[in-house]
Amino acid sequence: MTFHCTESESEFIQRVIKEISSTKSNREPLFVAKHPIGIDIRVEAIELLLDMESNDVCIVGICGFGGIGKTTISKAVYNRIANRFEGSCFLENVREMSKIIGGIIQLQETLLSKILQDRDLKVYNVFEGINLIKERLRHKKVLIILDDVKDSKDVENLLGECNWFASGSRVIITTRDKHILTTLGRDPRIYEVTKLSQCEASELFNRHAFQASEYGEDYSSEYGEDYSELAKQIICYANGLPLALKIIGSDLCGKNIHEWKSALERVTTRMML
């Protein structure tokens, strides 16, 4: 009898450790950006739309064209509010995953396993996944973010009907196509992401290209006015797109003036096409 009692205690302890470990991993913050310039003000605007004090099930759409920062902003929102829910899941690259054979099934498995804390959960077809989401999540207050959605059918396969979820649940969908949000039938609140201001764009580019600090030290004395003038032109052509500013700035970091001029020529040529 003592042996069986000891064995039962051991199994219980292992189960508790597993649950604590899985909960901890699910709550780890998502990486947002090396230099999250202009993120906070946009996150605060989305939080207002989410109306966190309301017990309704609320859907918020974040829309805008590629490279404007939808994913980055939604990750920052997730980090700020995920601990207020019984379960949470950030599903990234829905558009790309939906093109892969079995991709939607993988997303359904990820959604269920993250929220239910069951890494061994398996889904064998899309319809089974929809039924599992309905049955297993219908009484839970959840936060679900579907990132980069192109087709409303993918929303149906991953969320079914949002009224399945418990009161207080929040769903965030990022998309380039605003029309997808208007077809959901629950009057989603929509946040349209704006480009970075001139000041924000300059700061983001300078952080990546010159490794300028957040305290705004002047880099022109080290790099020279030639670099400064080229930077202004590149920032202008990037047109407030965070992804473009990050990629070009990171690529130019540490390079000589001739490489900067060549880069500006390439950017100018692309803009004229």
Number of strands: 5
What's the alpha carbon Rg, rounded to whole Å? Answer: 23 Å
Distance between the termini: 80 Å
Q: CATH H level of the largest domain: which superfamily?
A: P-loop containing nucleotide triphosphate hydrolases
Question: What amount of the residues lies in strands?
Answer: 5-15%
What is the succession of H and E elements?
Answer: HHEHEHHHEHEHEHHHHH
- What's the mean pLDDT score? 87
Number of helices: 13
Largest sheet, strands/sense/barrel: 5 strands, parallel
Give your account of this protein's structure:
Helices cover 55% and strands 11% of the residues. It is of the alpha/beta class. The chain has two domains: 23-192, Rossmann fold (3-Layer(aba) Sandwich); 198-272, no CATH class. The longest helix has 25 residues, at 2-26.
Question: What are the key terms here?
Answer:
single chain; 273 residues; alpha/beta; 13 helices; 55% helix; 11% strand
